[in-house]
Amino acid sequence: SVMKPSGRLPVSRIATMVSSVLAAAHGLFSMTAEKKPFLAASKKETKEAGPLGFITDFLIGGVSGAVAKTCTAPIERVKLLIQTQDANPKIISGEVKRYTGITDCFVRVYREQGMGAFWRGNVTNVIRYFPTQAFNFAFKDLIKALFPKANPKTEFWTYFAINMASGGLAGAGSLCVVYPLDYARTRLASDVGSGKAQFNGLVDCLVKTAAGPAGIMGLYNGFGVSVIGIIPYRGVYFGLFDTLKEKNPFKKEHGVLGIASKFAIAQAVAITAGYASYPFDTIRRRLQMQSEKPRDQWLYKGTVDCAVKIMANEGLGAMFKGAGANAIRTVGSALVLVLYDEIKHLISLP
């Protein structure tokens, strides 16, 4: 049967998110009323770190992420299918044939499940990615404001280290909030074959997993390795981009040349970050694939056991399965960085 493409993110859900953030931001930033020495010293930095700046960063980051994810959903689906196929029960049992590569996966998904299947799990992904990117960008600027200010021209390595730390900590913080949605996205997108889907949607996936042997903690299977992996990923992703864009000779240009130069930097950064953290991502996806099963049916006992078994049974290359598709998918990650900067410029934010 042909799946219909997922619908768009409901406006009511976005409104709920915004209301929650407005309430949270008031408490989070009440401390900015006092002038503390470790906080931003200038009026411009204080404005950026204040409630309005946080909320604006949250919304711009979320919208940029949602647009980019929807555009690159087919590549994301193929990447996940290839990455998780060795932990997929239907493929292990022989019910569904293995995918031999990116092209084979694209062709078979279209033939077996229809065009709409490339967006299977996309609504879940957007619901997950909106707050993820929103919190990432908002937390990054908040955390960066807590560090001493460094001049990128005279204190390059200090500036670079601050950017890396801000990005890594922002990624770890946002992951705590949205991990169950990331788990559900992996399970929905990893469903294979032309038969009945294992889960009927986001809520069904979360409910069935939470009702399983591991309980609510089943939604956090692979969380430990995810935190370990997200710190270098977001550290490189945000830190390297914020650092290199200051070296961009066309950074003040907002025409074709300026946007193209920013995108080139963002693309290089996204690919670098993706490869740096990909083995961690592979392990967490494998762990997520077994969450709703009884423990005696688990392929892996935990993070270390998963890593050891993959290396012993499949070799080092297995840690990077789907990395080629992931490199293509980083177009979306690069697009998020550029969209965020350009939208901030369009609404004349510092």
Automatic annotation (TrEMBL):
<dbReference type="InterPro" id="IPR002067">
    <property type="entry name" value="MCP"/>
</dbReference>
<dbReference type="GO" id="GO:0005471">
    <property type="term" value="F:ATP:ADP antiporter activity"/>
</dbReference>
<keyword id="KW-0677">Repeat</keyword>
<keyword id="KW-0472">Membrane</keyword>
<comment type="function">
    <text>ADP:ATP antiporter that mediates import of ADP into the mitochondrial matrix for ATP synthesis, and export of ATP out to fuel the cell. Cycles between the cytoplasmic-open state (c-state) and the matrix-open state (m-state): operates by the alternating access mechanism with a single substrate-binding site intermittently exposed to either the cytosolic (c-state) or matrix (m-state) side of the inner mitochondrial membrane.</text>
</comment>
<comment type="function">
    <text>Catalyzes the exchange of ADP and ATP across the membrane.</text>
</comment>
<dbReference type="GO" id="GO:0140021">
    <property type="term" value="P:mitochondrial ADP transmembrane transport"/>
</dbReference>
<feature type="repeat" description="Solcar">
    <location>
        <begin position="261"/>
        <end position="346"/>
    </location>
</feature>
<dbReference type="GO" id="GO:0005743">
    <property type="term" value="C:mitochondrial inner membrane"/>
</dbReference>
<dbReference type="Pfam" id="PF00153">
    <property type="entry name" value="Mito_carr"/>
</dbReference>
<dbReference type="GO" id="GO:1990544">
    <property type="term" value="P:mitochondrial ATP transmembrane transport"/>
</dbReference>
<feature type="repeat" description="Solcar">
    <location>
        <begin position="158"/>
        <end position="247"/>
    </location>
</feature>
<dbReference type="InterPro" id="IPR023395">
    <property type="entry name" value="MCP_dom_sf"/>
</dbReference>
<dbReference type="InterPro" id="IPR018108">
    <property type="entry name" value="MCP_transmembrane"/>
</dbReference>
<comment type="similarity">
    <text>Belongs to the mitochondrial carrier (TC 2.A.29) family.</text>
</comment>
<protein>
    <recommendedName>
        <fullName>ADP/ATP translocase</fullName>
    </recommendedName>
</protein>
<feature type="repeat" description="Solcar">
    <location>
        <begin position="52"/>
        <end position="146"/>
    </location>
</feature>
<keyword id="KW-0999">Mitochondrion inner membrane</keyword>
<keyword id="KW-0813">Transport</keyword>
<keyword id="KW-0812">Transmembrane</keyword>
<keyword id="KW-1133">Transmembrane helix</keyword>
<dbReference type="InterPro" id="IPR002113">
    <property type="entry name" value="ADT_euk_type"/>
</dbReference>
<keyword id="KW-0050">Antiport</keyword>
<comment type="subunit">
    <text>Monomer.</text>
</comment>
<keyword id="KW-0496">Mitochondrion</keyword>
